[in-house]
Amino acid sequence: MRILIRNGTVVTATGASEADVLVDGERIAALAARDSGLADAWSPTADRVIDAAGRYVLPGGIDAHTHMEMPFGGTFSADTFETGTTAAAWGGTTTIIDFAVQAKGTSLLSTLDKWHAKADGNCAIDYGFHMIVSDVNDTTLKEMETCVDAGVNSFKMFMAYPGVFYATDGEILLAMQKAAATGGLVMMHAENGIAIDQLVAQALAAGRTDPVQHGLTRPPELEGEATSRAIALAKVTGSPLYIVHLSAAQALDAVTEARDAGQNVFAETCPQYLYLSIEDLARPDFEGAKYVASPPLRPREHQPSLWRGLRTNDLSVVSTDHCPFCFNEQKELGRGDFAKIPNGMPGVEHRMDLLHQGVVAGELSLARWVEVASTTPARMFGLYPRKGTIAPGSDADIVVYDPTARQTLSAATHHMNVDYSAYEGMEITGRVETVLSRGRVVVDAGAFHGGAGHGRFLERELCQYLS
Ligand code: URP
Ligand code: ZN
Ligand code: ZN
Ligand code: ZN
């Protein structure tokens, strides 16, 4: 199948240009400047010509932080690999990197097998895995080497959730030493869970049980502190460090300082921290439970810092941390005890659109939008230039985006398998029109043409920012 996408504005991390794109099979075959006239020559040989006049032609989005079917607190996040990757495709994301979760007492390799079994044959778009390390011991540390060799070379650790995922500073140090020795990348959930658990216990003992307490018992200072501690441990071990779901200005300050000093420290933020706030957690009648995720939504004052961080590259990536739990059956588990509300929010479908609002508002340039949503995640997680750009030889993961269309986000129209939208009623400028995943048109003119099993596992190279 040869597809010609013509008359559009091709946007990559280096800028926008008037160009036509020829797709042959699963790859991008060629790119030609509009005035070269080459598209006229290609046109008769194309099986399909997509007219992208007035549209952006973007590399497919890469969401480097999702949790499909993730076990948490006795339940599972509501999107399967099939529903979650389908929703991602609808929103212009053509690659996800999901987290395999090591349960305490189990091995990394059996965990990886388990996650392959969940995803294999079920994904509508390409996917990779990170590994959540929750049980650091000699076997685990040895297995980290095997994971790196198997293309799963990023390891998430938790300074939060004592008794579940939490790792001590000593355990983190050991894992970082292993990462430094193997070229792996440690991804850190940086919140001081030991202190937080005390604040949570005090709130519950005082009868403060509403969802907003989730935010009040996880103050931004304890994200800043944990981020600084993770940075110190990374420095001591010579390990690179990637801070996940950064939400607080205090944490960003720590990242900025480390980067200014030349340390290999990177961070991502998520759309919910750019657009939602602790006011959403304080919604009455338990509605705040829809917004419970960790780190929690912050006061709005943090948001200008996050936008600035995205511009200065102290925040390099925007991922969703997509981890949906239904309001009705699942968030309900925490009525009367906010600490039992499953942590996580839906978002995999809306990342490209929400970030485009940053372009519309003048917070981000067009090129920077593509960079934080696609190109840098590809480089950070060893997928570039196969993914993350529009260039000859790259996978034909392409989004045709209408920058002037209007849409309203709603659970009534989204494709995620969850019964609410965190952005219900939000009006968006821009809309995904056509999506190609490895040369196959999976979304077009409001219809889904993809299917479970099209998506392939991506064995990733090492992080390309590290020498
Ligand atoms: O609340 C969240 N973020 N749930 C997903 C798990 C994690 O910590 O990323
Ligand atoms: Zn986390
Ligand atoms: Zn997460
Ligand atoms: Zn449900």
From TrEMBL:
Its cofactor is Zn(2+). GO terms for molecular function: hydrolase activity, acting on carbon-nitrogen (but not peptide) bonds, in cyclic amides; metal ion binding. Carbamylation allows a single lysine to coordinate two divalent metal cations. CDD domains: D-HYD. The keyword Hydrolase applies. Pfam families: Amidohydro_1 (PF01979). GO terms for cellular component: cytosol. The modification N6-carboxylysine is found at residue 156. Residues 56-442 form the Amidohydrolase-related domain. It comes from the Bacteria. Belongs to the metallo-dependent hydrolases superfamily. Hydantoinase/dihydropyrimidinase family. This is Dihydropyrimidinase. Keywords: Hydrolase, Metal-binding. InterPro entries: Amidohydro-rel, Hydantoinase/dihydroPyrase, Metal-dep_hydrolase_composite, Metal_Hydrolase, Metallo-dep_Hydrolases_sf.
